[in-house]
Amino acid sequence: MPRPPATAALGIAMLAAGEAFDAEPLLVAAVALTALTAALWAWCWIAARRATLAREVDRRRVEEGQPMSVRLVATGRVALPGGAIDEPLLEAPAPLPCGRRRVALRIEVRYARRGRRLLEPPTLVLNDPLGVARREVTTGGAQDVLVLPRVEPVRPMGGGPERDAARPRTPVPGLHGLEPDGLRPYRPGTPASRIHWPALARGAGLLERRLSPDADARPLVVLDAAGPVPAEHLDCAVRAAASLCLQLARAGGCSVLLPGERRARPVGPDLGAWPAVWASLAVVEAGPEPVVAPLAARTGPLIYVVARLPARDVPAATGSAPLLVAPIAAGGPGRARPVIEVAGCRGYLLDRRARRAAA
Q1: Which among 207, 210, 241 has a CA at the least distance from the CA of 224?
Q2: Per the domain annotation, does 193 fall within a domain?
Q3: Pairing relation of β-strands 265-267 and 302-306?
Q4: Residues 69 and 169 grouped into a single domain
Q5: In principle, which of 18, 41, 164, 264 could form an S-S bond with 26, CB 3.0–4.6 Å?
């Protein structure tokens, strides 16, 4: 550890000994040691007054597991005496070369879990080569980085493809009514020009095109984060909700109801509302049960994503069976068959009996 006063005291002691014993070699060494101590201390002091350390983050939002580039730049008006860059993102301080006015360091950071991260400012530690003096420089403030939940593909599981093969292609396998081209079952009196004849030819039955999408007929993704639940289960549920929401939005639009909110947020095919929804999903925490009373009036499909199996009847929209999505580690309803797998979760298509069994 640097001790300028102790080093200077040693030089003074050597100077006194040289005078007392009339030893010229001690006098020369004492003067040299004292002068060197003063010079190194002054170097560190001047360099610290003029030095800066900047941290540049290439983006303030990053997805789980994706790299984030961080650039550290140390600069000084005079040559830096050396030392280290103490960056909280590094396991150990990075060494700082001696005698350079500008040092740049680039590192790559990955976050395994979603959430908001507060990056404390880095510290520039200046040490002379002999370890006589030490100064610390901290410039700038803390920075926020939002880690977004990872989006993964939705994979169909066995037991559903045969039944859904005759249907038009759906963005979520096994869930009825999610046709991306805005189809719905034929209603008597519909003009023949609105009948979707290719679907009839494929054996999917008589379907009609919707002239304008109904907000209540869009798929609704509900995230139930009622706790307490293990953090791993909640993260899986959030990733599954994000993955389903993005896939449904790209296929024609959907809505998403987040914990603590009373009104669902629409996400259209243009994905204009998706960044805000994605950011909200990143900071979801375990809390009270969602408000599901208005769901009974909806006519569109319902995807109910949970961090743990609910202790009550799973809600459903009018005329459609809900899709219950739960972490694999949390188990699943016994009478329902899994139709999809996404982000460590499985989706179970619930009929009336399976809904009671899931409760």
Answers
A1: 241
A2: no
A3: unpaired
A4: no
A5: 18
Please check whether residues 162 and 306 belong to one and the same domain.
yes
Name beta bridge partners: 224: 306
User: How far is the CA of 137 from the CAs of 46, 117, 134, in angstroms?
Assistant: 12, 23, 10
Tokens 């999917």, located at residue = 204
| Token pair 């002054």: residue | 42
- Residue for token pair 């005759």: 166
Residue reference for tokens 């999610």: 178
- Using the 8-state DSSP alphabet, how is residue 275 labeled? H
pLDDT value for 351: 63
Q: What's the pLDDT band for 179 if we cut at 50, 70, 90?
A: very low
Query: Within this chain, do residues 217 and 320 fall inside the same structural domain, yes or no?
Result: yes
Same domain for 119 and 101: yes
**Boundary residue ending a domain (148, 174, 198):** 148
Q: Are 252 and 334 in contact (CB under 8 A)?
A: no
Count of structural domains, the chain: 2
Closest alpha carbon to 44 in 137, 106, 107: 137
Cα–Cα dist 341/233, whole Å: 15
Does residue 105 fall inside a structural domain? yes
Q: What is the pLDDT of residue 11?
A: 52
Based on the fold, state whether residues 223 and 353 are members of the same structural domain.
yes
- The four Cα atoms 354, 355, 357, 359 give a dihedral, to 10 degrees, of 160
The whole domain housing 91 covers: 4-148
Mean pLDDT, the chain, rounded, equals 77
Q: Would 203 be classed as within a structural domain?
A: no
Q: Which residues, at least 6 apart from 50, have a Cβ–Cβ distance to it below 8 Å? A: 76, 77, 78
Residues 159 and 292 in one domain: yes
Q: What is the tens place of the pLDDT at every residue in 3-46?
A: 555 555 555 555 555 555 555 565 555 566 667 777 777 878 88
Residue 176 lies in a domain: yes
- Strand 323-327, strand 302-306: pairing: parallel
Which amino acid is it at 264?
A
Cβ burial of 121 (10 Å; 0-12, 13-18, 19+) is middle
User: Residue 340 CA to chain centroid, in angstroms?
Assistant: 23
